[in-house]
């Protein structure tokens, strides 16, 4: 008895014929699970179908075939026959609903599913006939031809696109309709359709209004200030600082309630900005973070502060009534521009009260001190002390008391005079360092010492239009120090004839004027120094396409020599030798092909030298930025050898994702390679794929994706031969070798016996020889 197993397609009428091995066999008989579909011709043993086979109803038939003699007695069999029914793509995929209804929150993150559609196919799930692909056929409305929704081709999960996240608005009250299709992967695919109706609802994940908190609050803490809410209760809330604060007195609970944990101080920080984040159980954010703004409102907790313990001013004894003596300015650390920091000044007391009780007045809002009465006399009183109250307008009002000292000084009735009016000539190199002391000068004043009337300030009134020099004064000795303020330039000024005047900070009394006694002169002669060439800019930049032709002029960089000497140019630090510079003109051009993939920016150093004195040189950097052109075809991101493995036998068609890349500027993308059927041999196959970039013009390349089909271990890894057996022959090879060896031995033995027979026919040799031959045989 034997078993035959066969696989047949639908509607095959004749698919197997059995032969009689016994001449007495009269007829064939078929028994088993015929299901009124499979019969046998009793005369010639042909199996045939009487109707269509249906893989869904019955996938295999177990039958027995036997033969009977003319009397109906069993002669042969029964022989077992198993018929497997192969599926063909004869079923359309069907959605489990003809219409779906979903809701999506406005501003939902793209790619997060909010609805899943589902379809089934009654064909064999292990074949492409039942592998389903979903897609959106149409979106209504779609006036801008921009899809707001997307569907996962494999899972049927629907989510918003980036455009949907931006443009979907609940207040527009638009119901969107999606026409979906689902199709199988059979060679002649079937498809069906369904509709999805989507309503856009309000997104609860919104930033709250800015919170205003009063500083130094006496409320119990922690204290609720605001709340954020995700669209459901499945998230975990966190607070993240925008910047690192010395202290961060805010927390958030599981309900999104934000609390302040301690009183705030506006003088420490007037505003806090941080973020509320909603995360799923995996710790991943489910939406963009919300910005939380907390403004700290000021209370009047800072009194005005005096600028100094004692503020000192001066007034001449002959000062006119109404003259300003000085500005007294207090400060307040409360919020600027508020009533809490608005300062009032009030003169409380003057001491001594001579010659009058009110000799001075202070402006209520700006602190300007003026002389309101005449009669100051340094002989009678050389100083006054003022007691001033400074207060704000906060609630409650806070105030402080400040003290002011006003010194009465002698009238400025003497002008400063120089001990010598001509300081001669001084010679300086033009490359002298800045702040170098050039000359000391001295003037004197006979007014009251250590007052504004005797203090001296030096001014250069002629000979220095570009302010190359400054004069600093010792406030104790009134000695002046002339120093270099800017680099000297022989080519601009060969001599500086300085005219210097000594002045008092206090005005002179009426009738007294400055004259030649307050004037001094100094001639500064500049020596020419051979200077380096000078570039007008600290750095030079240019941009070109990488495919510019060789010899293209890019930029001209020129320097000037202060002495007017001839300059020659060269390039240094030119590692790829892409550029050259015209020696006399400074024109930079290309001498080789540029390649952005090697250098997206190329930097060289331009050197300018005096032709007659090359040691006098200067340099500047030139950066050339290369703009990309599409000169590289795309390619695989890696070789993928061994990455894509399919285990045999197949449970279902597989798919693999591979990535492409391009040496040009555009980023790489990914694609998916899917099996359309499962009829693959066990070997390493190379699937040709065309990759095209988005350049203008577009470039493409054909690459090969390696896919290995093999028998796998339980860990889904390709099964390998046991160690040491890779070079051993198979059973068939062993039998072939054995039969070959036996054949060779047989041929040798036959040759020996034939040789002996010939020798016996030619005569007998002597007995010794004959015996030896028999022994040899």
TrEMBL record:
It is found in: Cell membrane. The keyword DNA-binding does not apply. Residues 40-95, 96-306, 307-418, 420-535, 536-636 form the Cadherin domain. Its main location: membrane. GO terms for cellular component: adherens junction; catenin complex. Keywords: Calcium, Cell adhesion, Cell membrane, Glycoprotein, Membrane, Repeat, Transmembrane, Transmembrane helix. The keyword Calcium applies. One of its GO terms (biological process) is cell-cell junction assembly. This is Cadherin domain-containing protein. It comes from Pyxicephalus adspersus.
